[in-house]
Amino acid sequence: MASRAEERMQRQSARNGWLLSLPALGLLLIAALGPLLIIFVYSVLTPGQYGNVVWEFSWDGWVSILFTRDIFDGTLGLADAHLTIFWRSVSLSLMTTLATFALGFPTAWFIATRPPRQRGLWLFLITIPFWTNLLIRTFAINEVIRQEGVLNTFLLWTGVIERPLSIIYTDTAVLIGMAYVYLPLMVLPLFAAIDRFDMRLLEAGYDLYASRWQVLRRVILPIVKPGIVAGSILVFVPSLGAYVTPRVLGGGKNMMIGNFIELQFLAGRNWPLGAALSVTLLLIVTAALLIYVRAANRGSNPHG
Amino acid sequence: MAERRFEIGRIPGFATVAVATFVMLYLPIATLVAFSFNEGNSIAVWEGLSLHWYREAWDNQAVKDATARSLIIAVCAAVISTTVATMAALGTTRRAKFRGETFIYVAINQPLMVPEIVTAVALMIFFGMIKVATGYQGLGYLILAHSAFCIPFAYLPIRARLEGMDLSLEAAASDLYATPWKTFRHVTLPLLGPGILAGAMLAFVISLDDVIITEFVKSGGQDTLPTYMLGQLRRTMTPEVNAISTALLALTVMLLTAFFLLTRKRD
């Protein structure tokens, strides 16, 4: 049982904890968390004529995520253009996740199985692109895949192709770009999981006559699963909210949700719809992160 | 033992994929850097080595202004976010877990979780209201926004440093009749120094790199380097963008190297 003095000290310690955190919380409330609440409010208001909103309650912002109102008879129909954008966002994000996993898993495995002295260097090589400006990396991949870019120049020069490949401004370009910029987000958690992996389990597997494929499927993958979940979420979440990469490589036509949100606000068309889309994106991301937290907790508990 | 562990972990094809991945990771960046030294005005056809585009960027008033703005914002954001993050880190480590601690932790890391485009739009609306109400259009909004989303980047390395710190030195100081403030000033702060510096550097890099929030929050004529570069997309791109990118890249790599040297565990 805690004595009264101890109890008082604990209470004081908690108060100091709050007091010390207060400036950070205040700043976040003004310039990050608080404004998010405005988005919720704006999603149920009426669009103003020249952008902005009129302060009248309306569900139209939410309804127009999926439906459009016919301008002649006022009936609701599915908004095909919107659905195309959602489908593109989700499918491109999933494909990005798969592509980064296909490349990232062998890479993380390779780094984790280097001799300890080299490992830091290889890891540093992954970290540099991770911290490098996303825009710069998108420009870099743009210079490689554009019409008169390095890839086409090289392929034409070697005679592999006769006409330049038209990759830029397609979904493929956005996919390549996102896989390129988000790859480090996959490799780092995978490495963390593989690094903890006890290599003696492999010996046990091989001693029991398992093939390499069986060892990979039945021993390695189940054990590093938390790392796989973490990496997948870390890639999927920013892919879904991507703005810069589709803008630079998709060329305005191949929009994703992020660009679609911008369109609602900057072209001054429909702020409530933009707000409703933002809330939707926020909810999907929150759901994904909850899955991540659960997987991460399971990962830290070896008996889970 | 190390030799054997190394062998057993070999999976055929993995090394090849890994090396190919590293090449793919660096080839585009290398291309970008290489063409910044191009003599001609193409970003795809090599016409000889020169510093032409660095001079071009250096003489460009718009680039100069954007650079100055980027640096002012990044320095302010780094100082502000590191200060509040240091306090928060001191408040949330090395004491008995208290009610609300998890809330504080989640709130501080919230900028890492919310998609940037959502925050950007929210800030555009909110700061838009304030701009109309007060008439103030200055850099303050950008500094405020950057300071906020840099907080977790400053907080995490400082917290990591605090958690690894030995409490006995501070206990010794108070045993020797040092006041809490003196203990903090002469024991805790010097020990925490590398963590704070590392946090500040990350915050600086993150602020310097930001595109989306800046793009939505800035008033007219407040381009930073990244938004200036994004704006160049509408024109024919010249190696000037490559030169700016390379300079930014060099700065980032330098800061990161310093960061790793500072946070490296000395075993």
Automatic annotation (TrEMBL), chain A:
Top-level lineage group: Bacteria
Transmembrane segments: 20-45, 85-109, 121-141, 173-194, 215-237, 273-293
Domain ABC transmembrane type-1 as annotated: residue spans: 86-292
GO cellular component: plasma membrane
PROSITE patterns: ABC_TM1
Keywords recorded for this protein, A-Z: Cell membrane, Membrane, Transmembrane, Transmembrane helix, Transport
Localization: Cell membrane
Membrane topology: Multi-pass membrane protein
Pfam family, one: BPD_transp_1
Signal peptide: none
Biological-process GO terms, alphabetical: transmembrane transport
InterPro entries: MetI-like (IPR000515), MetI-like_sf (IPR035906)
Similarity section: Belongs to the binding-protein-dependent transport system permease family. CysTW subfamily.
Official protein name in the record: ABC transporter permease
UniProtKB/TrEMBL annotation, chain B:
Alphabetized CDD domains for the sequence: TM_PBP2
GO cellular component: plasma membrane
Pfam families, A to Z: BPD_transp_1
Protein's cellular compartments: Cell inner membrane; Cell membrane
Gene3D superfamilies for the chain: MetI-like
Membrane topology: Multi-pass membrane protein
InterPro entries recorded: Bact_Polyamine_Transport (IPR051789), MetI-like (IPR000515), MetI-like_sf (IPR035906)
UniProt KW keywords: Cell inner membrane, Cell membrane, Membrane, Transmembrane, Transmembrane helix, Transport
Ranges annotated as spanning the membrane: 12-37, 71-91, 103-127, 139-158, 187-208, 243-262
GO biological process assignments: transmembrane transport
Domain ABC transmembrane type-1: 67-262
PROSITE patterns cross-referenced by the UniProt entry: ABC_TM1 (PS50928)
Keyword Isomerase: no
Family statement drawn from the similarity comment of this UniProt entry: Belongs to the binding-protein-dependent transport system permease family. CysTW subfamily.
General function of this protein: Required for the activity of the bacterial periplasmic transport system of putrescine and spermidine.
Name of this protein: Spermidine/putrescine transport system permease protein PotC
Source organism of the structure: Paragemmobacter kunshanensis
